[in-house]
Design a protein that fits this description.
Elements lengths: L1 H16 L4 E2 L2 H4 L27 E2 L9 E8 L6 H5 L7 H10 L3 E5 L1 H6 L1 H9 L3 E5 L19 H18 L7 E2 L8 H6 L6 E3 L3 E2 L8 H11 L4 E6 L8 H14 L3 E2 L2 H10 L2
Parallel strand pairs: 2-7, 3-4, 3-9, 3-10, 4-5, 6-7, 8-9
Antiparallel strand pairs: 1-5
Helix pairs in contact: 4-10, 9-10
The structure holds zinc ion.
Length: 280
């Protein structure tokens, strides 16, 4: 029983690690702005600050502005997983990225800084490919709340630094324009975390469709879950971590043609945020 419990906890922690990614170039170069700036078309769209000035949280785009959908892939690697990578575990998923390229599917990759350090060539290639945008999933993939799937916790006074460290890691490996979007590890956040990240200048990005690919063994089940959940403007969370999400690439090969058959167009998160802004 103890063994089982420990395995469950470990699995949850990994699953949590599998649920966050990030962007770069950002905060320092792009200070938070109180509202979207139409005068600066080259700057990525961001949401206006949330209530009382906290970091805004984006979950999906407009439901009535056409059949668009954003696939997002969390490139998870936790700060303490270096020994596992050294022992041969693969936290990357190059075949998935190649499939997205072959199918010409724009996507947003929420990357941890630790992942970029482990796979600098892949991080750079993703960051320099106009098909993709790199966003921030923290440096450490530790939790920003006290109770988040058993993940270690980032102290409040270190939250901003953890996000900024990821941006530094992206720049160090040659990602030129990381986006000012941040996905909380495990998707766990609270008001305290949203306040702590105000100086980082990011928009928090959650999702409205869970792909369920973490630890999945049935690609068709993952594909069905995505297809059942997608609505116009949806943000789908999947993973770019081969060892813990081995069926994702196969599921994508089912999901993409079916959604296109239904009339959906794949977009990056930035386009959905821009569309949300356009609603005024
Ligand atoms: Zn994650």
């Amino acid at each position: 029983m103890i063994t089982l419990s420990r395995r469950v906890i470990a699995a949850c922690a990994l699953a949590a690690a599998l649920t966050a990614c990030g962007s770069s170039a950002g905060p320092a170069a792009r200070p938070p702005s109180p509202a979207p700036s139409p005068a600066a078309p080259s700057a990525p769209p961001t949401l206006a600050a949330g209530p009382e000035g906290v970091v805004p949280v984006f979950e999906h785009g407009p439901r009535d502005a056409g059949k668009t959908v954003a696939l997002t892939f969390d490139a998870d690697m936790t700060a303490d997983q270096g020994p596992r990578a050294a022992a041969g575990e693969r936290f990357d998923h190059p075949r998935l990225i190649e499939t997205l390229r072959t199918l010409k599917v724009p996507a947003t990759v929420f990357m941890t800084g630790r992942w970029a350090e482990e796979y600098p060539d892949q991080a750079r290639a993703i960051g320099r490919d106009p098909l993709f945008e790199v966003a921030n999933h923290s440096y450490s993939h530790y939790a920003f709340t006290a109770d988040c799937y058993g993940l270690p916790t980032v102290p409040e006074e270190r939250m901003r630094a953890d996000v900024e460290r990821a941006y530094r890691a992206f720049r160090a490996v040659g990602v030129p324009e990381p986006m000012p979007y941040f996905r909380f590890p495990g998707g766990c956040y609270d008001r305290r975390a949203l306040k702590a990240l105000i100086p980082a200048g990011v928009t928090a990005v959650q999702w409205d469709v869970v792909g369920g690919d973490a630890f999945a063994t049935d690609a068709d089940a993952v594909a069905r879950q995505v297809l059942d959940g997608v609505r116009p403007g949806s943000v789908v969370v999947l993973h770019c971590t081969r060892s813990a999400a081995p069926t994702t690439e196969k599921a994508v090969r089912t999901v993409v043609p079916e959604l296109r058959r239904q009339g959906y167009r794949f977009v990056k998160v930035s386009e959905l945020i821009g569309a949300a802004n356009g609603r005024g």
